[in-house]
Amino acid sequence: MFAAFPLLALPVLIYNLIVLTFAGGFGSNAAQYRLAEQLFTIHMTSKADWVVSLGDLLLAASLVVLFVELLKSTTSRKIAIINHSLSMVLFILCLVEFLLAPAFGTSVFFLLTVMVLLDVLAGFIVTIVSARRDVDFSDAH
Question: Who's near 9: CB < 8 A, 6+ residues apart?
């Protein structure tokens, strides 16, 4: 049953937890400042400093999770349909949060929402293409 769980729900849940730790909750605009805070700096060989924030780490981890989700969508088991449906529900929740709650109106959450949308689209497209291969439309007798 774990295979039906959309893994991109984890970064979305982490974002929700970050936002809910502020005093204003869903209405707080402090999320944007918290996500942009410098966590650490990496000194590059080019003498430039690469400043890494919490939002950067969350997006990097989300890209890894998106890759795993795309690999999961290539399976043609019945559980994949449940996964695609739950991913669609997750996308709708992300879209509602992005449009209605000020704390979710950030670039980080927008990119998370786009990743969830790509997961939904890729899942359905892969399922349709694999279903086409299973059906034979030839004139052979």
Answer: 86, 90
Range of the domain at 122: 2-134
Contact 113, 91 (CB under 8 A): yes
Q: pLDDT tens across 26-69, in order?
A: 777 788 888 888 999 999 999 999 999 999 999 999 999 999 98
The pTM score is 0.84
Q: For residues 101 and 93, what is the distance between their CA atoms, to the nearest angstrom?
A: 11
Q: Quote the CA–CA distance of 7 and 115 in Å, as a whole number.
A: 11
Q: Which H or E run includes 95?
A: helix 79-100
Would you say residue 139 lies in a domain? no
Q: Is residue 141 part of a domain?
A: no
Residue 114 lies in a domain: yes
**59-88 pLDDT, tens digit each:** 999 999 999 988 887 776 778 888 889 999
What totals of helices (H) and strands (E) does the chain contain, helices first? Answer: 5, 2
**Are the CB atoms for 105 and 30 separated by under 8 Å?**
no
Domain count, the chain: 1
